Amino acid sequence: MNELYIGMMSGTSLDGVDAVLVRFDPAGQPALLADHAVPYPDAIKQAVLALQPRGHDELHRSEMLANELAGIYAQAARELLEKSGRAPADIRAIACHGQTIRHAPHEGYTIQLGNMSRLAELAGIDVIADFRSRDVAAGGHGAPLVPAFQQDVFASPDEKRVILNIGGISNLARLHPGATAIGFDCGPGNMLMDAWCLRHTGQAYDDDGRWAAGGQAELGLLAAMLAEPYLQQPPPKSTGRDLFDDGWLQTHLRSLPAQPSPQNVQATLLAFSARCIADSILQHCPGNQAVYVCGGGARNGALLAELSRLLAGQRIASIETLGLPAQLIEAIAFAWLGWRFSQRLSGNLPAVTGAQGLRILGVLHPR
Question: Do the Cβ atoms of 115 and 130 come closer than 8 Å?
């Protein structure tokens, strides 16, 4: 029996919600039927950012934001169904990641915000959410979760490949024939670049990396950032805005004897993201032959060119060559995790997250 699921992802880039309608065959292989995106209003972005650090009245603010996010998720589901000509009764479940506001697996918790009971009420569809907490409870990081999906869908019997997602944070999955799949967060992807670009140009992102390409990386700043202890930690590991935020960048900038131009900082941030990725692949994926890129960073030509230079001899290509859209992999992956939950099948890879074993991930909110 083929089943329909809606997958929803709202990541650290804070662009908004990606929603996909996916049909799964009995083996759990996905077929993308439709997709839809709902951008976050600026007020939602600011509310999410304001909750990243500990602050005043955060319990009330988080619950109010959770209600607002439920409305945005419900809007995404409704508009996706209208676009695809489907009705709520056609859908087995919405698998919703929620919006990460704090990721602290070392303290035993991770928070993906969203009032999922409210979403089930508004959408009239079962909702499966809170995918990360069960892995954290089992001693894992609760992230990254997408490598389990990538192994199931993209593994090759004869090519040593890496699936690289460049979102706000960059993360990879090593899929080498005959070897255990591993995956981890490399470091910042687009997050620091996007924030710096917005501050100094008014643009939400550096289109194709053109602004960075016109600058010159400051080698002293780059070396200082590359000394970040997280980058030296062995996998399994995960990170996010809790570490790589504006305060982290400002600390490094204040330590410089002279302030670089904004464009040169952007060039340095691009070089930093590229090095975090390339160093991770060279150290943990020996003999790798191909890197398939997804996420927003797949549209940054300057970043991909720098990766090609750093990973000479490896093929750098869009994941679309493997049959799925580069910008929707995470949303499809969470639809897959929803399907796995419904089948009572595990959704994590302990070698990736560090959990004590395989676990069924998710919490059901019935319609």
Answer: no
